[in-house]
Structures are given as structure tokens and as C-alpha cells.
Write a structure and sequence with these properties.
- The chain is an alpha/beta fold.
- It is 21% helix and 29% strand.
- It has four domains: 133 residues, no CATH class; 209 residues, no CATH class; 232 residues, Rossmann fold (3-Layer(aba) Sandwich), CATH 3.40.50; 95 residues, no CATH class.
- The strands form nine sheets. Strands 18-17-20-22-31-30-29-25-23-24 form a ten-stranded mixed sheet, with helices on both faces. Strands 4-5-10-9-8-6-7 form a seven-stranded antiparallel sheet, with no helix packed on it.
- The protein is globular, with a radius of gyration of 26 Å.
- This is CHAT domain-containing protein.
């Protein structure tokens, strides 16, 4: 399951394929090359496979955050090749670090002539040169499984092993690739920690009361700090250096734990710029403007000393520097939730416990004010729906025992999740969130590690002629990527046997358009109940139909990692908009959870949908490295594009993915010489100003999401539709 390298068929160069994560990357060369195996020990950084090729240069063909030039012997930083930058280096031994979806290194002994643009980075050598290419997958699997009984003190001991997933305990662990997966937790009769799980000794201890409320809350912090967790009635963080920090402050325990995690993480990200990856980062500029911390001194300090310095800074002083957080996960503080804590911790999710019963007024379908629907939405739902016609029920929740009126949880089982500052919301526990994602343990059991061929397999099924508009639209959307190969299979009016067979096959995405009710999928010859599907090979499933919740859960339990489902009736017109938007977002490279949040915000009935399973799943790597939304604000409407000589302000909002999780660094376009080079992922970057011609030149040749006048559009279509000459 190591990366593979193949010569290109229709161009000169090589394709590097990661068969575990289903990512690929292309390096173009001026001439045809014939790769041969090489020694991985030649690289100062870890690689799992290496090749040798002879070429006069390489071209990185599309946007990556940066190509770093390093000393080949010790990995020390020499210079970055960023956007719109050219330079030359004398003959020497260099290591080129390509921060691509497949982590790639190039070892070369030559002079270098580097030209970096917004479209490519081209590196010419001093004539034909034999170089060595090394690669490693970004995949990270748990090192083992800890068995834990239903006892909070035992769970504390289990959490104390989470730091074994870290690849370093220095501030460099703020880099995603240096944070491995904590061990899995499995409920059992007694605590059992495998001997090969070796937790680091960071000297940091989290002391909290032995109950699930406190234990669940500190899980991500315990992982990130590599801390030992022990019972104590007075919540506090201590270090062997003598540092002690209370966790029961006036903020409240949850908020204080969140403050410590966010502040330690941010300042680690700033401090790491003194290490292997020096960079001009926006967050460092912001922190330096409000503190006098000595980051060069902090870089080599003990963790306890770092925490003492970090937490001496008032949290309010860091507000402008703090990046957005990927996800807030609300957790039911019970034993059933424990098995999902490693996945919550891995994502560095903020945790809030939620024990109260569901507020009935917040259940879906109660009122327009709580369901987030548009004023005309109820009228629309009285028209053609993608499910059974029901009597009453507000937005379509079941009102009787008819099997056609089921397929979704009872209204008493819905859990309202409060708004947060995070990019996504998730829920762990019994019940179903009104919005966001419900994490299912079975989804993480299906985290596939078997090799693939690198082609994105998408199957679209439509089982109703009246819904053909969505089928036609999304069939054209999927696979509209020059650098990512898709295999799109479109089916219409399939039978129950055909649908069962399709669900059993391997797909990166299975998109169903049609009718679903409490009995199952409507097919040309009857109903297929997902409960009877023993196994599905689909990774991501989009069920764009009424009341598809229970069918989606059944498919996750049968093998899918994630499913996008509805919790009630949806009208056909709104569902077409939702289906197309999901298709575009997933095709561009958004994770499922982030795509849901965008669909909720920018489509008429997006709040009728939720994710069950693992919301981190992506189906395609993003052309921009990590997904971005280009926000033009309220100055333009959907029919107006900037004039070529007009000064245009664009705010970039970045989103995290499995390939670029929280803590990655993004190098945006449109920068001036005075702007910082990098920003932390995810979150709102600063607003950049450039000419209308430059903006159109950069964005119009591919499809990326753009917010214009508060509405979601796509760059290729918006520029084309707004051009009076088109």
C-alpha cells in the first residue's frame, strides 16, 4: 500500500498515486522518463518508496501551497518557491519538498532555475540530471486498540495513551502530518492496554473529576498535549516544571479547556515558524502585534515552559489571530460515547457535553423560525415531493403509523445543536442532530486501507422521470476536472435487483435521485429496503430523496463511511438545487461535513439534510490544495462581473479536509508584496485587492465556489454569464 509512480501516457512526466487515500499528483518533465527503484534512505525526511529518473527539469502543474528548497543532507530551509517568484541557485545538493496531496520529495545535485507562477512551479536543472523522487502517503492509522470498561477512571487511563499517536511532542506537532491517530477504544470488561502502545512522557497532567462530563471534554486536549489524565476533584493542568493552570475558571470548565487547546495550538503554530518551516505567516504577525513572546526561545523549551508562556497571554488579546476551528462536537456524556473519542480527538474537535433532553420546540418541522426554512418553503412542499404525500406534519415529519410515513427518527429523538464559531457541527450519542453530522462508530470501522486505481468512481441513479433534471445536471458536473480522473456511471429507472447490485459494488460516491420512504428505495419493480443490504462498497452516499435518514444509516452500517440524508419531505425544485450544489462541492474537493454546512447556508431547503457517519470524508482532492470560497461581498450581484481595470476586493475562506486538516498552511493568491505568505487552515483569510482582469484570469478557467451578493455561484459560470460578450 505504498505510493506508486507511473510514466504519463499522453504527456511527458510521471504520475504519483497514493492508492490508500486515492490521491494522485503529476510532475511534468521536458522529456520522456523511465523510472527505476531507488533507496529511500537517501532522503532526510521519511518516505515509503523512492524512484530514480533522468530529466532536465520538472514542472508542478497546478496550485500547491509551496515548493520548499532544502539542504539535501540535513533538511535545513534554503528558500521557498511561492507564487510569482523566480530565482536561481548555484550547483549543490538540494532537497525539493512538494506539499502535494501525495507528499513528495525530489533530491537533486545540480544548479536550479526556478519560475513560480499561480499556475505552476517550473524548476530547470543544469542539463539532464539523474534525480531521486521519494513519496509517502498521508494516511495515518491507529497503532492499536485499548479495551476499556464502563468506568470513567479507566477511560482516563485510556485517554492517557492518546499521545502515542503523536509523531513529535514539540510544537511541530501542530503540523497535521506529525499528528498520527490515537489508539482505538473498545468497550470491554476490564482495562487492557497493549504493550506496544507507548505514550510519550511530556510531563503534562490533566487532573479532572472522574465522570464522563469531564473525561469527554478533555479528550482532544489530552491527545494534543500527550498528557496523562488522572482523577482529581479540582480540575487543573499541571506540568513537571511546576506550572499549574486551573480549568474551573469563571469561564466554566468546558470553555476553559477549549481556551487552553485553542491558545496552545495557535501559539505552537506560530512558534514552529522558528523550526524546519520558517515562513511569513499572518497569524505570527497578528500575535507579535499584541505580545512580546520570544518564539525563538520558546521553540526549544520544555512543554511546561511553553504552556506557561502561552497561557500568560490573555485570550482576548489573541482574538484577531485565532484561526477558525474545523468542528465542534457535542457529546452525550455516557459510556456509549467513549468509542468515538479517538476520532473526535484526532480531528482536534472542540468538545461540548450535552446531557439535557431534546427541546421539542427545536425539532424539525416545528416552526419556520426553528427549522430555518424560507417563507415560501411550506407552500413548495405541498407541491411535488420526493416521497409520500402526508396529511399535516409541518415540514413532512411522520404523523401516523403508515410505513410510508416513517424512515426518519421520531420527533422526540431530535437533538438541537447550538450555533458555534466552528466551521462544522457534529453530534455523538443517542438521537439525531437537527443540523450537522451524527458520528456513527460503524462508519469508522469502514475506514478502508485497501489500494485503489486512483480513479474516482461515481455512480448516479435516478428512478423517477420527473427528477431527470437533477440527473442530467449532476451527470455533467461529476468529473469536470482536468487533473483528477473520474469514471462516472449514470443509470436510470433501475430495478430492485439492479440497485442492490450497484450498492454492493465499490464506489467513491453513490448518488441516488428518487423516492424513499419508510419501506425503502422506490424502484421500477418495487421497494428495496437498505436494511436487507448486507454490504455496500460505496464510500460516500448521497440520498437526495424524502425521509432518507434511516436508509442512509442502514447503508453506513452496511459498509459506507458517510451518507448525506434528509430528515423529512423535500420538494423537487429545492432538491434539484441541493443535489447540484452537493455535486459541485464534492467534485471541487470539499469534505462531506463542510459541504453540508454550505448547502444549509446557501440553498432554499438545505436545512432538511444532515450527514450520518464520518463527516471528514472527501471524494476528490481539491485543485486549490484545500477548498476555498471566494467571497466578493455584497458589492456585486450575480449578473455583474468586475471590469478589467476595476479594483476588486476578494475575501478567501479556507476549509479543512482530510488531506489538509487544521494546522495546515495555505498560500493564497492575489497577494501583494506587503501581505504575509501563509495563513492557517481553516478560516477567513484577509481580504485581498487586485484588478478585475487579474481576478478573472485566475478564477475563470476552473470551477470554484464564489459568494456574490450573499449568493453562492461558481467562478467559471459567473464570469461567463456576466460577460456581455458571451
Amino acid at each position: 500500500m505504498r505510493p506508486r509512480l507511473d510514466p504519463l501516457d499522453h504527456a511527458t512526466g510521471v504520475e504519483i498515486l497514493d492508492p490508500i487515500e486515492n490521491n494522485r499528483y503529476v510532475l511534468h518533465t521536458p522529456e520522456t522518463v523511465s523510472p527505476t527503484p531507488a533507496d529511500t534512505d537517501a532522503f532526510v525526511y521519511p518516505v515509503s518508496v523512492a524512484w530514480r529518473v533522468t530529466t532536465s527539469g520538472i514542472r508542478v502543474p497546478y496550485n500547491v501551497p509551496v515548493v520548499v528548497v532544502r539542504d539535501a543532507d540535513d533538511g535545513s530551509h534554503i528558500i521557498d518557491a511561492g507564487h510569482d517568484r523566480s530565482f536561481e541557485l548555484d550547483a549543490d545538493e538540494y532537497l525539493l519538498e512538494v506539499d502535494a496531496p501525495v507528499k513528495t520529495y525530489v533530491r537533486v545535485a545540480s544548479s536550479l532555475v526556478v519560475e513560480a507562477t499561480t499556475e505552476y512551479v517550473e524548476i530547470a536543472f543544469g542539463g539532464e540530471t539523474t534525480i531521486e523522487l521519494g513519496a509517502r502517503s498521508n494516511h495515518s492509522s491507529p497503532a492499536g486498540t485499548v479495551t476499556v470498561p464502563d468506568d470513567p477512571e479507566a477511560v482516563m487511563e485510556a485517554l492517557s495513551t492518546f499521545g502515542s499517536g503523536l509523531k513529535t511532542t514539540t510544537c511541530e506537532r501542530s503540523w497535521p502530518t506529525l499528528r498520527g491517530h490515537p489508539p482505538l477504544l473498545e468497550r470491554g470488561d476490564e482495562l487492557a492496554i497493549p504493550d506496544d502502545i507507548d505514550a510519550p512522557d511530556t510531563g503534562v497532567t490533566l487532573r479532572v473529576p472522574a465522570d464522563y462530563e469531564h473525561v469527554c471534554t478533555v479528550a482532544p486536549l489530552a491527545y494534543y498535549l500527550g498528557a496523562t489524565v488522572v482523577p482529581d476533584e479540582r480540575p487543573r493542568l499541571t506540568a513537571e516544571t511546576g506550572f499549574s493552570h486551573p480549568l474551573d475558571t469563571e469561564r466554566g470548565f468546558e470553555d476553559e479547556v477549549i481556551r487552553v487547546l485553542k491558545q496552545a495550538f495557535l501559539l505552537d503554530c506560530v512558534t514552529r515558524t522558528e523550526g524546519f518551516h520558517p515562513m511569513d505567516m499572518a497569524e505570527r504577525r497578528a500575535v507579535e502585534s499584541v505580545t512580546d513572546l520570544d518564539f525563538a526561545d520558546l521553540y526549544g523549551a520544555a512543554l511546561g515552559e511553553q504552556l506557561a508562556a502561552y497561557l500568560s497571554v490573555p485570550y482576548s488579546a489573541l482574538t484577531d489571530a485565532m484561526p477558525a476551528w474545523s468542528r465542534t462536537t457535542h457529546v452525550r456524556p455516557v459510556a456509549d460515547s467513549v468509542e468515538l473519542l479517538p476520532f473526535v480527538a484526532r480531528d482536534l474537535s472542540l468538545v461540548r457535553v450535552q446531557s439535557s433532553a431534546t427541546d421539542p420546540s427545536s425539532s424539525p418541522g416545528s416552526t419556520a423560525s426553528t427549522d430555518g426554512s424560507h417563507p415560501d418553503q411550506h407552500d413548495a412542499l405541498s407541491a411535488f415531493k420526493r416521497g409520500p404525500q402526508l396529511d399535516g406534519g409541518g415540514l413532512g415529519l411522520p404523523t401516523d403509523a403508515d410505513s410510508r410515513a416513517t424512515g426518519v427518527p421520531d420527533s422526540s429523538e431530535y437533538v438541537p445543536l447550538p450555533e458555534t464559531d466552528s466551521m462544522e457541527r457534529a453530534w455523538v450519542g443517542d438521537g439525531t442532530p437537527v443540523h450537522g453530522a451524527k458520528l456513527l462508530a460503524s462508519a469508522f470501522d469502514h475506514d478502508r486501507t485497501e489500494p485503489t486505481d486512483g480513479i474516482i468512481d461515481v455512480t448516479v441513479v435516478c428512478n423517477d422521470e420527473q427528477m431527470r433534471e437533477e440527473w442530467d445536471t449532476v451527470s455533467e458536473v461529476y468529473g469536470t476536472r482536468d487533473t483528477v480522473p473520474f469514471d462516472v456511471d449514470c443509470r436510470f429507472d433501475v430495478s430492485t435487483a439492479e440497485l442492490r447490485s450497484l450498492l454492493a459494488e465499490d464506489h467513491d460516491l453513490f448518488h441516488f435521485i428518487g423516492h424513499i420512504d419508510g419501506r425503502g428505495f422506490a424502484c421500477s419493480d418495487g421497494i428495496l429496503d437498505a436494511e436487507t443490504v448486507e454490504e455496500t462498497g460505496a464510500t460516500t452516499i448521497l440520498l437526495n430523496a424524502c425521509r432518507s435518514h434511516d436508509q442512509g444509516v442502514a447503508l453506513v452500517e452496511a459498509g459506507a463511511r458517510t451518507a448525506i440524508v434528509s430528515w423529512g419531505d423535500v420538494d423537487n425544485l429545492g432538491a434539484v438545487e441541493v443535489g447540484e450544489t452537493f455535486a459541485r462541492l464534492l467534485n471541487y474537493g470539499f469534505g462531506v461535513g463542510a459541504a453540508l454546512e454550505i448547502v444549509e447556508e446557501y440553498t432554499a431547503i438545505g436545512r432538511h439534510y444532515l450527514v450520518v457517519g464520518d463527516p471528514s470524508v472527501t471524494i476528490a482532492q481539491c485543485a486549490d490544495g484545500n477548498p476555498l470560497i471566494y467571497d466578493f461581498g455584497l458589492d456585486y450581484d450575480s449578473t455583474t462581473v468586475p471590469a478589467p481595470d476595476e479594483e476588486v476586493s476578494v475575501t478567501l475562506v479556507s476549509y479543512a479536509t482530510e488531506e489538509y486538516p487544521i494546522g495546515a498552511a495555505a498560500k493564497p493568491q492575489f497577494q501583494s508584496a506587503e501581505d504575509p505568505d501563509f495563513y492557517l487552515v481553516p478560516g477567513r483569510m484577509m481580504t485581498f485587492t487586485n484588478s478585475g482582469a487579474k481576478v478573472e484570469e485566475t478564477l475563470s478557467d476552473y470551477s470554484a465556489p464564489v459568494v456574490v451578493g450573499g449568493e453562492l455561484h461558481w467562478t467559471d459560470e459567473w464570469f461567463a454569464e456576466g460577460d456581455p460578450d458571451e
